[in-house]
Amino acid sequence: MKLDSTPRIPARARGRRPLALHVLSALAALLVAGCSGHGASSRRELTQRQRDSVLGASAIPGAFTVKRALSESDRASRQAASFDVQVDSLGN
Fold this sequence. Notes:
With 92 residues, the chain is mainly alpha-helical.
C-alpha cells in the first residue's frame, strides 16, 4: 500500500473553487468599472487665464514668458479701464 501525500478534495468541491474565483473576479471588475466614471464627470474645467497662470508658475521652459505676457495683459487692461473712466468723465 502506497501513501499519497496530496490532500484529497471531494468531487463535489472541486468544481466550486474555480467558479467562486470567476464570480469574485467578475464582481471586482464590476466594482472597478462602476467607480471609474465618477472622477471625470465632476472635474471642473479651467479658463484659459487659469491654465496660463498655472503654466506661468511652472518650471518648464518658456514659463517666464507666459507669466510676463499675463502681467502685460493685466497692465493693458488696467490702462484701458483708466482711459474708459477718463472718457466717461468728459461726457458728463
